[in-house]
Amino acid sequence: MIFNYQATTKEGEAQNGTVDAPNVNLAIASLQRRGLIIVDIKAEGTGSFLSRHIGGGRVKIKDVVIMSRQIATLFEAKVSALAAFRMLASESDNPTLSQILTAVTDDIKAGMPISQAMAKHPKAFSNFYVHMVEAGEESGKISDNFNYLADYLERSYEMVSKAKNALIYPIFIIVSFVGVMILMLTFVIPKLTTILVETGQQIPIYTKIVIGLSDLVRNYGIFLLVLVAILVVFIRRYISTASGGESLSRFKLAVPYIGNLYRKIYLSRIADNLSTMLTSGISMVRALEITAEVVDNVVYKNILTEASISLKSGNLISSIMYKYVEIPNIMVQMMKVGEESGKLGFVLETLARFYRREVDNEIKTLVDLIEPAMIVLLGLMVGVLLTSVLLPIYNLAEGI
């Protein structure tokens, strides 16, 4: 591999050039042996070394799904890990993922296990992913585990995509609503207000409220915008704290109807994660600990963490989950059946499918309700604004 470098000598003289080396670490070592101080180094056709390791691009779930499926296929075809990762690194369309796979290849070549090599790149491989690979290495079924990972990530990606797509239309309507309100209060209402003031008639109280709101937007709009920006920054910082994160998690579950949707998404994620890890040979205690880290809700994270601690004391998972109101009774009963029959992984997989269907139904119903509701609300608010100003003008015309 050819690397372009920028360096200086010990005397401070700038030098630019290229060096041929298997990876960036060996390229750096080669230049340092020449007595050069490296300013920047990059492989030909890629971004700089710093840009790859500080910030860098984004690795999409879709890319990791495809990569996982390809690795499983290559392993089933008896291709060595080193050759498989080198091949995928050269063929990946995502530059960031290609660079990560190249680094993983170098670490495997140096004798590092695949799971440890992947653990160095959390941007692409989550803790859940790494432990699944590690379990595959220990059980000798690594190709099966990569298939499990690809299936799981596909399901997760599909669910997240459905939830995001369901919110696109409502967000568009809300933005349109706010835009229309601002335009009316800024341009339309002031012109109509001038006509009312010139007539000298008594202005109704509801019209005065609209006129006052219009004056507020026109005269102090920039200050309101700054205030909203400050509020958003404050909320984001508060959410990043432990207490703020827990408050947001509880709020998500408490919102009428939306809370029920979030609850089913989290339950589906918990059941799917646990099922996938148990199938791959990971213990229930470790599966609970890992799921707690990826469930993305502090309330359920605390439940899973406490459950993993209780499980170490010899309690059954169903008896542990029974005391939490956030875990529905049907899920607890199904877990109990799975424990008694020795098929807990299969039962959790069934629960995951059930909750995925429930999420699909909830999203469809939510979209069907939101669309007409937002359109009616938009029309109603525009109508109220216009009526509050046009009605006095109409009364004036009747009196003439």
The chain-level mean pLDDT equals: 82
State the CATH topology of the largest domain. Receptor-associated Protein
Report strand order across the widest sheet. Answer: 2-1-3
How large is the count of helical segments?
Answer: 16
Termini gap: 88 Å
Unreliable stretches: 46-56
Query: What's the CATH H-level superfamily name of the largest domain?
Result: Type II secretion system (T2SS), domain F
Report the radius of gyration as a whole number of Å.
Answer: 30 Å
Shape: flat
CATH-defined architecture of the largest domain: Up-down Bundle
Beta-strand percentage?
Answer: 5-15%
Helix/strand structural class = mainly alpha
**In which range does the helix fraction lie?**
over 70%
Give the SSE order as H and E letters: EEHEHHHHHHHHHHHHHHH
Question: What's the CATH class of the largest domain, please?
Answer: Mainly Alpha
Task: Give a description of the structure.
By secondary structure, the protein is mainly alpha-helical. The protein has three domains: 2-53; 61-152, Up-down Bundle (Receptor-associated Protein), CATH 1.20.81.30; 153-400, Type II secretion system (T2SS), domain F (Receptor-associated Protein), CATH 1.20.81. Helix content is 76%, strand content 5%. It has 16 helices and three strands. It has helices spanning 24-33, 49-53, 61-76, 81-91, 95-109, 114-119, 127-139, 142-199, 205-239, 242-254, 258-279, 284-294, 298-312, 317-321, 329-341, 344-399; strands at residues 2-8, 14-20, 37-43. A three-stranded antiparallel β-sheet has the order 2-1-3, with helices on one face. Strand 1 (2-8) and strand 2 form a beta hairpin. The relative contact order is 0.08.
